[in-house]
Design brief:
Elements lengths: L1 H18 L6 H5 L13 E2 L5 E6 L2 E6 L5 E7 H7 L9 E6 L5 E10 L5 E9 L4 E4 L9 E4 L5 E6 L2 E6 L5 E3 L9 E3 L4 H6 L6 E3 L5 E8 L5 E6 L6 E6 L9 E8 L4 E5 L7 E8 L5 E8 L4 E8 L5 E8 L10 E3 L5 E6 L6 E6 L4 E3 L7 E8 L4 E6 L8 E6 L6 E2 L6 E6 L5 E8 L2 E9 L4 E6 L2 H9 L5 E7 L5 E7 L10 E7 L15 H12 L3 E6 L8 H4 L8 H15 L4 E11 L1 H12 L6 E5 L10 H8 L6 H5 L13 E7 L7 H14 L4 E5 L11 H16 L1
Helix pairs in contact: 8-9
């Protein structure tokens, strides 16, 4: 009997050993990418036919939307290699775009990033029918972009701060502008702040008939320079660029129209341009009228100005206003009649769809206490608008369709999860990326009615890997704070969670205006893998969206106006205090961390939390909004001259003396976005207050703190600090 008992214990121990989950490490997350979901490389829908392309090792292959069958090898790597004499192969192609007739494709090769959305690359046009490779531009200088005209006969590009176009038949290059100068004049592409805050990089476009080009000219000469050291030589390099901080001068931006036939360059007179922005320029179908968007400095009035390139006449055809701020989007669709557009607006307190007659009637098509997140596709033939909204639940994102008269609204997805569709240009099919809180992204092809035709990638193998490492599910939490604010969050508990035990909690936050971290989607898998690692070590992870975040209407989002940081910190502190009341939480061991705005919010929450948090980590935080760029900051705060208290009373540096607990500050010294100056100002305040804190800086790293072993080192440091101090 004793021997049988010992054998049973040994067998149980062996089974337990074999059944035990593998240990999650930072190296597995960031070096080996074990837990990174896969997409569909190079997926691109063809412009007019019912085909799509993907990138394979041998080249760009074409597939049928309807059947999923491979049609042919559209661009063979062997052809590219032969035609370019070894210069171009598919491994060097970072992006590609087809001409509207599908006979040519523009290839971006050896692309290198400049800022967040901009890059430089060599560009080539591959003539598919004639198996011919054409080099764009006549030098070895990399270009900012290369765009084909609608007829595929010409290509527009920007090089060395100037704008050019090339006739593909003759090879003749015509220079459009001649005054480009680094850190002074940009023609056809955006300056730093437009790119970062108005979601644009290129700022030039062909008219539909290819006869004209509209572009923005950025005169940056009055914008003050920011500089930082790059520690790369015996004497560090001093890097300089134009960066307008809150309250400071912006570039003077002008809209120009270039006529190819007459070679005439015309500046559009749009009045005083010293305190406004021109975030978008659109062409109407007639190729004579351009619609120019003009945004005031306070960013609460957006005018749509129609400009006729023949008569030089202009009129305001639509205006969107808000008593706080409004966001510039890409949800502006101009119909073929040249008289109508489909837009979204928050004018009734929630973001909804409107049909606008240019210069006339504004008709609301959707309504309710929910938000339209984005217009996905407008089908003029069927008079249908496809859009994403959270009508089914504040954490969801579902695909709907609705008619041009606001009727026959149809839910096309499941009503439980997060959908990211990408329609083919003719609207007959779309690729959908679906996930939910605990389901990895699934990529499918669907028809225009939402019917699933096939699965492209379900990330089954990544899920199997996660299971082997003992990944646990998250759950949604929902509570009301003492001041009556309803908040949503998610929580991840250890696999062997015991409700009778008390666990430390690590909160993570972002919290910036209009953001949303708590969604019914899989979300940021790198950080989620970190939280899974913490779960293995007995920690609960929590994320809560406070006031200021998106999808709950203007009243919830814009309560932060002119006092950014105040309510966001109050809500993170309230979340910590709610957690303290849960029987399974060790109320003396709650931490918080974040990056960028999240780094700012984690510091402010710790400093103002009066002991709510035991520790905090800030990565690349803003420490006073006076140091950040003017487009983003003034949208929510107005200028420091108008609102000094709003800036200073919500700055972590103001409350440095109130630091209680452990605090780690991390920043890259070459951060072009949130300048290293922010870290130094906070360090100075902490030193003057005589409080203890920790700091770590990454030389020559930007806001993303990446490259080489950097991310692995950073996340190991984050994990170690949490484990040692919480």
């Amino acid at each position: 009997m004793k021997r049988l008992f010992l054998i049973t214990i040994l067998f149980t121990a062996i089974c337990s050993c074999f059944g035990q989950a593998k240990e999650i490490t930072i190296e597995r997350i960031w070096d080996d990418y074990y837990f990174t979901p896969r997409g569909v490389p190079g997926y691109t829908a063809m412009p007019k036919s019912d085909y799509y392309t993907v990138v394979k090792r041998a080249g760009i292959e074409r597939y049928s939307f309807a059947t999923g069958e491979r049609v042919d090898m559209l661009v063979a790597n062997s052809d590219l290699d032969r035609l370019s004499k070894g210069t171009v192969n598919i491994s060097k192609v970072s992006s590609y775009e087809f001409s509207s007739d599908e006979k040519k494709v523009v290839l971006a090769v050896d692309e290198e990033s400049i800022w967040r959305r901009s890059s430089l690359a060599f560009y080539y046009v591959y003539d598919i029918e004639n198996n011919k490779l054409i080099t764009v531009a006549d030098t070895n200088t990399k270009l900012h972009f290369a765009f084909l005209s609608e007829d595929g006969q010409k290509v527009l590009f920007a090089r060395d701060c100037d704008l050019f176009y090339q006739d593909l038949a003759t090879g003749v290059i015509t220079q459009i502008t001649h005054d480009g100068q680094e850190n002074a004049i940009f023609n056809g592409y955006a300056d730093w702040v437009y790119e970062e805050e108005l979601d644009m990089s290129s700022a030039a476009s062909w008219s539909p008939d290819g006869s004209k080009i509209a572009f923005l000219r950025f005169d940056q000469r009055r914008v003050k320079e920011y500089n930082f050291a790059l520690y790369d030589n015996l004497y560090p390099t001093d890097f300089k660029y134009k960066y307008p901080k809150a309250g400071e001068d912006n570039s003077l931006v002008d809209v120009y129209i270039y006529d190819l036939a007459s070679k005439q360059l015309t500046r559009v007179d749009l009045g005083d341009n010293s305190n406004c922005y021109f975030p978008r320029v659109y062409w109407l179908p007639n190729s004579q009228d351009a619609v120019i968007l003009k945004l005031n400095r306070h960013q609460n009035q957006l005018d749509f100005i129609r400009y006729n390139t023949v008569t030089k006449q202009q009129d305001i055809v639509y205006t969107d206003k808000n008593d706080k701020w409004l966001d510039v989007t890409d949800n502006y669709y101009f119909l073929k009649d040249g008289k109508t557009m489909i837009v979204t607006s928050e004018r009734d307190g929630f973001n909804h769809i409107y049909k606008v007659t240019l210069g006339g009637e504004i008709k609301q098509l959707t309504s309710g206490n929910w938000e339209v997140n984005e217009i996905q596709y407008v089908n003029e033939n069927k008079k249908l608008i496809y859009y994403l909204s959270n009508e089914s639940g504040v954490l969801n994102r579902d695909l709907y369709s609705i008619t041009f008269d606001g009727k026959k609204k149809t839910l096309m997805s499941t009503g439980d999860g997060w959908n990211q569709p990408s329609f083919s240009p003719n609207g007959n099919f779309y690729r959908n990326q679906y996930s939910n809180l605990n389901t990895l992204p699934i990529y499918t092809i669907r028809d225009a009615k939402g019917k699933e035709l096939r699965v492209l990638n379900d990330n089954k193998h990544v899920k199997e890997t996660m299971n082997a490492y003992g990944f646990v599910d998250r759950e949604i939490i929902h509570f009301t704070t003492e001041d009556g604010t309803e908040l949503y969050g998610w929580m991840m508990k250890p696999a062997n969670f015991d409700p009778n035990k008390k666990y430390p909690v690590m909160m993570n936050c972002y919290g910036g205006p209009g953001s949303q971290q708590v969604t019914n989607s899989y979300g940021s898998w790198y950080d989620l893998a970190l939280y899974q690692m913490l779960a293995q070590k007995g920690y609960i992870s929590v994320c809560v969206d406070g006031r200021g975040t998106a999808t709950r209407g203007d009243a919830f989002k814009k309560v932060i106006y002119q006092q950014m940081g105040k309510y966001e910190a109050i809500d993170q502190i309230a979340a910590a205090n709610w957690l303290k009341k849960q029987s399974y939480v060790d109320g003396n061991r709650i931490g918080i961390w974040g990056w960028s705005f999240g780094g700012y919010l984690s510091a402010l929450s710790l400093f103002r939390g009066d002991g709510a948090f035991k520790m905090a980590i800030s990565v690349a935080p803003v420490t006073n909004w006076r140091y950040y760029d003017n487009i983003y900051t003034e949208r929510f705060m107005r200028t420091p001259q108008e609102n000094p208290d709003g800036y200073d009373l919500n700055s972590p540096t103001t409350y440095a003396k109130d630091l209680k607990g452990k605090y780690l500050l991390i920043h890259g010294t070459a951060d072009d976005n949130v300048h290293f100056q922010n870290a130094m100002e906070l360090v100075k305040a902490l030193n003057e207050a005589g409080v203890e804190y920790d700091q770590f800086f990454f030389p020559n790293k930007n806001h993303f703190i990446m490259g080489g072993n950097t991310r692995t080192y950073l996340y190991n440091k984050l994990a170690k600090y949490i484990l040692e101090n919480l």
